[in-house]
Amino acid sequence: MFHFLKYYTTTICRWFLRCRYSRGFGIQSPSAYSFVRYVINEHYPYYAYDELRKEMPRLDSLTRKRMELYFRISNYRQASLWLDYSRRDDTIATYVGRGCNATQVRRITDLRQITADDRIEVLRICPTAGSEAVLEAALQQADDRTLFIIEDIGYNDTAKRMWQKLLESDITSVSYDLYYLGIAFFDRKRYKNNYIVNF
């Protein structure tokens, strides 16, 4: 009960602090506005949400919120390969697979599993042991079609360092700070900008 109340209390406080960043308000770039409005904060009730809730009824609110975002990113990106550096969890593979049937989710446990032949389309990194080295290796292979997701950037020290490294990188273009996670693109045709988004 305490964790439930703490989650909702902090969520409400954070919402008030970030409410001016809701649904793309103040974003001048059409592509950034579109990504915030139709991917990050899309409220359309996809049919798969109900099916996935029935299949995985025990997910907590925050995990489900993240997984539904990954569903939308998968649907938006239509990637062939999604690399996942995290604790063992099949939930993400299920949600990403429903977002795009053609996307294969491959869990990696260390940077040696990112080969020179891998075209990194989507990479999610959770702040666990070795995650900073994985980010460093992955940055060497990032290109205009790459999208990185860093979990827990608002409250985990390792994640904060990784996120700062991405923001300072010369190859990072547009990024989105959602507090619970950060999303970074590497499209060099776009101006460098970091958007704070109320998620």
Tell me what the structure shows.
There is one protein chain. This protein has 199 residues and is α/β, with parallel strands linked by helices. It is 42% helix and 16% strand. It is built from seven helices and seven strands. It has helices at residues 2-18, 30-40, 47-55, 61-77, 91-99, 131-139, 157-168; strands at 81-85, 104-107, 122-125, 147-151, 174-177, 181-185, 193-196. It has a seven-stranded mixed sheet with strand order 2-1-3-4-6-5-7, with helices on both faces. The mean pLDDT is 88.
Write the layout of secondary structure elements.
Elements: H1 2-18, H2 30-40, H3 47-55, H4 61-77, E1 81-85, H5 91-99, E2 104-107, E3 122-125, H6 131-139, E4 147-151, H7 157-168, E5 174-177, E6 181-185, E7 193-196
Parallel strand pairs: 1-2, 1-3, 3-4, 5-7
Antiparallel strand pairs: 4-6, 5-6
Helix pairs in contact: 4-5
